[in-house]
């Protein structure tokens, strides 16, 4: 049985196989499970992109999607996450996609389940399908990761994509740079890449990946106003003019417009933000194919 929980669990060969499958799906390739399959998407935190693109991916692969609403389920009677997933397994569901606010929520589930789990995001932990779609978008643009300068800018400490993206990009041969508020940065992140000021980053990076300020994970109120954050750490229109000719802008979204990125730049020529969202469907088809093929 094959779960999909973090990219750290996968070898570079396995990651490249997933990217190849995503590429095939993006070009119209088809794959269907050998027999009827059922999926359930359990989202305990809000989501627009991840939930909808998993649903589209499941439907494109001919997988039946079982509706699930937390407030109409027996979770409201105190049933645990484990018993909920075990129940879906018992009624015949073949794969569960779960987003949960608890870091590593899957650790207490995986040993006693027979169906594969896909991590749709765990607290401040990991968001492996987002990381994979980020990799796919970068590969689509540049063809390779070797010696590419990739900057990860913003709320690194609370982001569930920043550190796992940095780790896997380094494994793939990219040079990773971090930027953003120093209070949201830890020296342990230096293992994956160096810290640079934003004005230096925009001039050297081939990929400028901005992160959303995760207000819901901040226990203290952010010290800066939105305008101050934008001027100090964001992609202003002035900074964009100093970016390299063929460099691109990425963001996992949702974007706080005029905070991480100037409103006008969210859909500019360099931006791949909506391409990332589009690629999310192909990558999630590849992930579902992998876990259902084992
Ligand atoms: N990027 C991302 O995970 O978006 P959602 O929260 O809308 O799924």
TrEMBL record:
<feature type="binding site">
    <location>
        <position position="130"/>
    </location>
    <ligand>
        <name>carbamoyl phosphate</name>
    </ligand>
</feature>
<feature type="binding site">
    <location>
        <position position="99"/>
    </location>
    <ligand>
        <name>carbamoyl phosphate</name>
    </ligand>
</feature>
<feature type="binding site">
    <location>
        <position position="253"/>
    </location>
    <ligand>
        <name>carbamoyl phosphate</name>
    </ligand>
</feature>
<feature type="domain" description="Aspartate/ornithine carbamoyltransferase Asp/Orn-binding">
    <location>
        <begin position="147"/>
        <end position="289"/>
    </location>
</feature>
<dbReference type="InterPro" id="IPR006131">
    <property type="entry name" value="Asp_carbamoyltransf_Asp/Orn-bd"/>
</dbReference>
<feature type="binding site">
    <location>
        <position position="160"/>
    </location>
    <ligand>
        <name>L-aspartate</name>
    </ligand>
</feature>
<dbReference type="Pfam" id="PF00185">
    <property type="entry name" value="OTCace"/>
</dbReference>
<keyword id="KW-0808">Transferase</keyword>
<comment type="similarity">
    <text>Belongs to the aspartate/ornithine carbamoyltransferase superfamily. ATCase family.</text>
</comment>
<feature type="binding site">
    <location>
        <position position="50"/>
    </location>
    <ligand>
        <name>carbamoyl phosphate</name>
    </ligand>
</feature>
<keyword id="KW-0665">Pyrimidine biosynthesis</keyword>
<protein>
    <recommendedName>
        <fullName>Aspartate carbamoyltransferase</fullName>
        <ecNumber>2.1.3.2</ecNumber>
    </recommendedName>
</protein>
<dbReference type="InterPro" id="IPR002082">
    <property type="entry name" value="Asp_carbamoyltransf"/>
</dbReference>
<dbReference type="GO" id="GO:0004070">
    <property type="term" value="F:aspartate carbamoyltransferase activity"/>
</dbReference>
<comment type="function">
    <text>Catalyzes the condensation of carbamoyl phosphate and aspartate to form carbamoyl aspartate and inorganic phosphate, the committed step in the de novo pyrimidine nucleotide biosynthesis pathway.</text>
</comment>
<comment type="pathway">
    <text>Pyrimidine metabolism; UMP biosynthesis via de novo pathway; (S)-dihydroorotate from bicarbonate: step 2/3.</text>
</comment>
<feature type="binding site">
    <location>
        <position position="49"/>
    </location>
    <ligand>
        <name>carbamoyl phosphate</name>
    </ligand>
</feature>
<feature type="domain" description="Aspartate/ornithine carbamoyltransferase carbamoyl-P binding">
    <location>
        <begin position="3"/>
        <end position="139"/>
    </location>
</feature>
<feature type="binding site">
    <location>
        <position position="127"/>
    </location>
    <ligand>
        <name>carbamoyl phosphate</name>
    </ligand>
</feature>
<feature type="binding site">
    <location>
        <position position="77"/>
    </location>
    <ligand>
        <name>L-aspartate</name>
    </ligand>
</feature>
<feature type="binding site">
    <location>
        <position position="212"/>
    </location>
    <ligand>
        <name>L-aspartate</name>
    </ligand>
</feature>
<comment type="subunit">
    <text>Heterododecamer (2C3:3R2) of six catalytic PyrB chains organized as two trimers (C3), and six regulatory PyrI chains organized as three dimers (R2).</text>
</comment>
<dbReference type="InterPro" id="IPR036901">
    <property type="entry name" value="Asp/Orn_carbamoylTrfase_sf"/>
</dbReference>
<dbReference type="InterPro" id="IPR006130">
    <property type="entry name" value="Asp/Orn_carbamoylTrfase"/>
</dbReference>
<dbReference type="InterPro" id="IPR006132">
    <property type="entry name" value="Asp/Orn_carbamoyltranf_P-bd"/>
</dbReference>
<feature type="binding site">
    <location>
        <position position="254"/>
    </location>
    <ligand>
        <name>carbamoyl phosphate</name>
    </ligand>
</feature>
<dbReference type="Pfam" id="PF02729">
    <property type="entry name" value="OTCace_N"/>
</dbReference>
